[in-house]
Amino acid sequence: MRTLVILVGLQGSGKSTALNRIASETSYRVLQPSTTRAPRYVGDTEYDYVDQWVDTHYAWTIDVGSSKYGMRKSQLEEIDQVGITVFHPAHIGSLAASATSRNFEIVTVGLDTISDLAVQHQRVNNEGSRKATQATFDADKIVVQNCDIVIRGNEETIFEAVFEIANLLGGRGGVLGKKTISTLIKADSLLQEADSKRIQTASYDLVLADKYWCQGKYHTLTLENPTAHIPPYSFVLVQATETAVFPRFICGTFDLRVKLFFSGVVLSNGPQVDPGYQGGLFCMLYNASGSPVGLNRGQHFATIQFQTLSSNSADGYMAQYQGKRDFTEFLDGNDSQKPGGQILEYINSKHSEIKSTFNINLAAFWAIVAIFAGIAIWQLTSLSESQKKVGEDVKEITKSVESAAESAKKIENQRLQLDKDVNSFNKKRTELDEALESLKSDISSYQRSIPSPKPTLKIR
Q1: What pTM was computed for the model?
Q2: Rounded to 5 degrees, what are φ and ψ at 287?
Q3: DSSP string, 220-244
Q4: What is the mean pLDDT of the chain?
């Protein structure tokens, strides 16, 4: 989408001067507004002066008294990428109400170059029609300060800032380089209370502020006390000396200095700065090492980068911390009293509690041991007497067993002898049976050899 950059400022703020220099010294398309009022002087080319006004020829129309102001549609059609024009704060609402805001990305640049009403009158040479009243001055000042980006400075600073803004919006998607950072900071944008010496190739080195919070207390660094100490395994909340004043088309991220990282310090919340944010830059630094880490007053502790958005943020950051710059605005009274970060102290406290409880339990343990020892000694004494009696009984039983064993041995010998006698008897019986059978055989043979007598003899 094409971008329309609008310079918004009170009369005498330098809008026309900046626009003329952009037109003559750069290649950016500068739009010429139209009006029905007469030129202020011969050769005045600030406006396209017309006698007749046809509303359909203009993208917007503004009525100021009997005069009309507006922008020709043909001027807008000639914009290739970025076009630049001017607007009075009182009439900026006419632009938002027109169809232009649907066809273009609108980026407003507030020229906050007039401090008070007297300066405004001086800038317009006390010309009656251009002098503001206090009421209109205050109202217009609010509009200027609520633009997408607000810049301040002399003619050269304003011109350079507008040129860099046009460059940024015409080449989106990158990290801001040193020249752009330097130009915008000089114009009181991006960062305030900044030191140009701390601008790097594509970043800025943030500096530690004097006030910090640690373990439930606020501390302040001084010449006599120049070092902030982060206890082991604890954290501190710190603030940068610089204050963010981000345009609505630029966001930022900052991270810890490498030297602190190698000391065991961790930037735990990895903060992103939203587009349009204005306020203090805070972060939590956690010491993950077992030794204290010191941060010196005015030390570079973090580095911030700036990136352009793919499109302008309509309202920018509007959350609770907008415009807040002091610790007490971020950390309320209750939170500031909490003993956060006392991890080591908590462990030591718990260690003392455990040690005390252990000692109490140890005394009770030994008392119980003494009681059980007494019972054990009594039981052992009784057991010894019982064992003595059992020993005597065992001896008697052993004697009885030995006697029984002797008797069993005698019985066994007698059994063996009986077995021998039985075997001998059986052997003799067998021999007698064999002799008897032999005798019977002999008798039978003898009987067969004797002739049978005639007479029958009876043997009794």
Answers
A1: 0.70
A2: -90, 105
A3: E--SSS-EEEE-TT-EEEEEEEEEE
A4: 86
